[in-house]
Amino acid sequence: MTRVPCMEAVVAVLESEGVDTVFGIPGAAILPLYAALQHSSIRHVTVRHEEGGTHAADGWARVTGNVGVCVGTSGPAGTNMITGLYTAMADSVPIICVTGQAAASKLHQEAFQAVDIVEIARPVTKWAVQLKEPAQAPWVFREAFRIARSGRPGPVLIDLPIDVQRGTCLYDRTVDAPLPVEMPRPLPAAVRRAVDMLGEARRPIILAGGGVIVAEAADELRALAEHLQVPVQVTLMGKGAFPEDHPLFAGMAGIQTQTRWGNAAFLESDLVLAVGARFGDRHTGDLDVYRKGRRFIHVDIEPTQFGRVFEPDLGVFGHAQPVLAEMVTEARSRTTARAPGKWVRRVGELRRTMARRDDFDDVPIKPPRVFRELNAFYPQDTTFVTAIGLYQIWSGQFQTTYLPRRYLVCGQAGPLGWEVPAAMGVKCAHPERQVVAVVGDYSFQFLMEEVAVAAQYRIPFVIVMINNEYLGLIRQAEIPYGMNYAVDLHYGEGGIDHVKAMESFGCPARRVELPGDLREALAWATAEAARERLPVLVEVMVEREANAAMGPSLDAIKEFEPLPELVTVDWSD
Questions:
Q1: Which residue, 180, 194, 179, 104, is CA-closest to 142?
Q2: Contact call for residues 226 and 247 (beta carbons, < 8 A)
Q3: 229: Cβ–Cβ under 8 A, 6 or more apart, which residues?
Q4: DSSP at 488
Q5: What homologous superfamily does CATH list for 367-541?
């Protein structure tokens, strides 16, 4: 073994773990790590805000399936990372945030920018740890990667006191490698029982959550669905787990990001095989309505998920890929591939008759028309990034997705400002991909300084802004209370001109007010981003009063005709 600066050993670990890009901001308390990074193969992207760095690492991780890394100094750098850690924790995204820290001997003395970031981060991480000895440095980082990847993935924070960073350790990269990550397999009896229940059901559906994408199990999901001819729904986090142009695609159920025909199909089902899904409240709504008349099989890699929201009829513990693969093997051993039956045809009928309109020619532009144009213009392998608010709801309702890791959304935490830095992380991971960030006007302003980062490093992507000029989702939520209070953002005199703001960063931008101009604007932005190697904005001025379809669990609001009565006939052959 050779004695080396311990931060050099840390950087060697990062390289061997597959990290090629780190997002961060240097500061005095983290400079030994930066000194080691400058002699490595790792690219460093200097962000403008530590929260933006965490979201960029988050986007990098979601699109690669690897562990993203963000670095900051002590004090406020770490506290600025908490939102990003919470977002990654909520959506099962593996990232590591590394913070500098005051010298260990000063931590009890209220030293400059010394804060107990480990305790602050503990509730929103899988592991938060402070490095105590230089000799532990490579092994703490190895364990951090293992923890971030294992079980239900998630974030880790490592705090590095400056005096510990300056230490040395014995390390030889030729005898070191990533720690193994367990892929738990299901009990054979549980697999047999799950297949039994699918066979007994008359109107089963498969519900694919984000865990299917995390597990790289889309192929196994499709094989099971096609062999048994079981319709497949996706959650918001599961978009891309199953192609939405497939005859077995059954839409999305929920109270916000949903399709009307998906809600109808769910209400007619009698069994749900949920794989890697949390049963989030925006998906289930009223649990009495959600559960009535159907049995549930819950497949998850985290056993404490079983019964957390409601008790399933069968819980199957295991990694989604081997669980679905073994279910396919079991199903094939029992029966030949089935042909589409009455239930599949019924779901197709609901899809044909209950789709929402998106072909509006109204001025101001109606939001569904924006997503119609996005669907039509961009190819199926485009990566879309979106965040929270009315535009997320419209995106979930109208955007079509075909491939895993091509639709990225901060689902559970929903931090405003996530989209631009996340899109930057995606493009750093896959420079060859077409990346489109769908943003709201208010969310864009939260971290719009990260546009300057993308411009500096020539990271090109398209930003499509859905601008209704005020806090539309909050205004909509206030309607039942007879309020419309404090939601106007004053886009008149003294307001923000987003086109000029982009141009101030040196980036092209265009405003669209007519639906007929949308397609050409998207073509212009895509060409400009590729030619200039810059982020490009298309700001779409949409109908100010436009609402998203929300309401009671698994129902449409009154502006749409009511869902059909629950069908209880046997749709199987």
A1: 179
A2: no
A3: 248, 338, 339, 340, 341, 344
A4: B
A5: Thiamin diphosphate (ThDP)-binding fold, Pyr/PP domains (3.40.50.970)
184 three-state secondary structure: coil
- Residue 390 near residue 22, CB atoms below 8 Å: no
Tell me if 266 sits within 8 A of 289, measured CB to CB: no
Which amino acid, one-letter code, is at 197?
A: M
* Rounded distance between C-alpha atoms, residue 87 and residue 98, angstroms: 16
| CA angle, residues 320, 128, 5, in degrees to nearest 5 | 110
For 538, the 3-state DSSP assignment is strand
pLDDT value at residue 411: 82
Query: Could you give the CA distance from residue 117 to residue 496 in angstroms, rounded to a whole number?
Result: 35
Structure tokens at 185: 């397999």
Q: Is 436 left (phi over 0), alpha (psi -120 to 50) or beta?
A: beta
127-130, strands of its sheet edge to edge: 43-46, 21-24, 68-72, 95-101, 156-161, 127-130
Least confident of 105-114, 296-305, 504-513: 105-114
Which backbone phi and psi does 84 adopt, to 5 degrees?
Answer: -65, -40
Q: Are 317 and 324 in contact (CB under 8 A)?
A: no
SS3 call for 467: strand
State pLDDT tens for residues 352-387.
Answer: 998 888 888 988 999 999 999 999 999 999 999 998
The residue assigned the tokens 């436009």 is 546
- Retrieve residue 227's tokens: 């062999």
Q: Which CATH superfamily is domain 188-353 in?
A: TPP-binding domain (3.40.50.1220)
DSSP for residue 29: G
The two tokens of residue 530 are 């590729």
Topology alike, domains 2-175 and 188-353: yes
Annotated domain spans of the chain: 2-175, 188-353, 367-541
Contact 475, 487 (CB under 8 A): yes
Q: Domain spanning 2-175: which CATH class is it, in words? A: alpha beta
* Helix-strand-coil split of the chain, %, nearest 5: 45, 15, 40
CA distance 124 to 84: 9
Q: Look at residues 8, 34, 33, 26 and name the one whose alpha carbon lies nearest to residue 138.
A: 8
Q: What does the block give as tokens for 313?
A: 């009829």
- Run of H or E including 212: helix 210-214
Write the pLDDT tens digit of every residue in 509-553: 999 999 999 999 999 999 999 999 999 999 999 987 776 654 333
Contact between residue 499 and residue 510 where contact means Cβ atoms under 8 Å apart: yes
Cα separation values, 149 from 143, 193, 300, Å: 10, 29, 15
Task: Report the distance separating Cα 93 and Cα 158, nearest Å.
Answer: 16
Q: Is the dihedral of CA 278, 280, 283, 286 positive or negative?
A: positive
Strands 156-161 and 95-101: parallel
Residue type at position 447:
L
To the nearest 10°, the Cα dihedral for 187, 193, 196, 200? -150
Query: Rounded distance, CA 74 to CA 27, Å?
Result: 8
Cis peptide before 535 (omega within 30 of 0): no
